[in-house]
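Notes to self after the Tuesday call (sharing in case useful).
The group wants a holo model before anyone commits to mutagenesis around the pocket. I volunteered. Ligand is zinc ion. Logging inputs and output together so the record is complete.
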Amino acid sequence: MAKNKEQDELSKAFLETLDEDDPFGLNEEIKVLIFKCLDCGKEDEVPEYVVEEFHFDLKENEEVEVVCPFCNGPMRRARKDPSE
Ligand SMILES: [Zn+2]
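Result:
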């Protein structure tokens, strides 16, 4: 039931958004970015606003790194979109 899982994650991200000072309008679709683990190669979706928060702690040329939920390794943004 991949669809249900997706729905769950959206709901979760949605609830997390409610804890923020509403960075987006509530009817806005939450954009997610794909991160890929450097250790195990698995991919995970991270809401864009979370990634943006990570960016505040970084210098311009540093990449956002999150922790892999599968192996606790470092995950970096997967670059699939040639426009970025
Ligand atoms: Zn991993």
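Two things stood out.
Residues 7 and 13 are 10 Å apart (CA to CA).
The pocket of zinc ion is lined by residues 37, 39-40, 42, 68, 70-71, 73 (CB under 6 Å).
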